[in-house]
Design a protein that fits this description.
Elements lengths: L22 H21 L12 H28 L6 H16 L11 H7 L4 H29 L2 H6 L4 H30 L1 H11 L9 H18 L4 H29 L5 H14 L11 H9 L1 H4 L2 H30 L7 H13 L1
Length: 367
Amino acid sequence: MGAADNNTTGGNDMSKPAKFGMWRVFVPVIIGLCVVAWLFKGEFNPDVWSMIHFDTRVVLCIVLAWIFMAGRDFGLTWRFRALTDRQLTWWQAVRVNFMCEFTSAITPSAVGGSSLGMVFMHHEGIDLGRATTLMLTTLFLDELFFVVACPIVVAVIPYDMLFGFGGSSFVIGLKLVFWIVYAAIFLWTLVLFTGILVWPYGMKRCLVWIFKFRPLRRWQSAVMALGDNMVATSKDLRTRSVRWWFDAFAATALTWSSRYLVVNALFWGFVPGADQLVVFGRQFVVWVVLMVSPTPGGSGVSEWLFTEYYGDLLHNTSIALVIALFWRIITYYVYLVVGVFLAPSMFRAPKKSTVNKENNKNNNDIK
């Protein structure tokens, strides 16, 4: 879920460079384009192009959408810098950020890909054990943001504007999926909070005991690794200052808010009369639901969900498709393109970590 996933606790040697296949890039692109083509064929009216005028306001709003996405990347880069105590340079943190987004784009949303961030940080010189601890921290921060933001969104935005419009099976299903996923996020955040801040050893023993039962035994080794990571993360986080926590959570909030504001910018350009608060709140719902998407990076599901969910604000499915296309180009396809260029170098053998360099230096001194 969220920024990381179950791979964080896998038993494989994550320090080894992974093989990169271009087919992983082509699959989500093909899925997304096929769904877009299907939607355009069934819903798009060619006359809509005559309604769209790419005047100064529209162009500026598209540029603003890119700026908001840059704000999202700045937030994640800032967070990687803060979590590593500035050990990563800005450029190294940018590379880690783009590779996390790239792997998320080529793996199913329900599985995730950002957990490989520990491999990318290790490649940039962070000790693998510490990198694993940091990725568990980013996972906790992302899930905490959703848990905190949900009550605020529901309290500020009329519930009918989020879920009450119409009585279609789509709206009913969307509401059901959202609350199920939110409940799962809440429970998972509670486990993480208890495991890395309150009671790490107790939580580890509890999880190991639960996964001793036969139906769950296949995941026991992964859960034991998760427990070890929680203990290590707890030792690190308990020494952190209030300023450190503020920077980390502020960067997380900036990241997700900027991502949502991309759609606001596009609506300002194409549908200036839309309720911007509702547009923002529905982005929260969209991203929570996309956490369980079975397709790589939510390809296809994202485009379909967007056009269906925002349709009542537009009264024109064709306009919804145009906005959805811009939205996916800015928030998704750009990471596929950048990732293709970064992946060959980032999947090579990692650099020696700073810790290993220090150990080698000490060993030489002893000799």
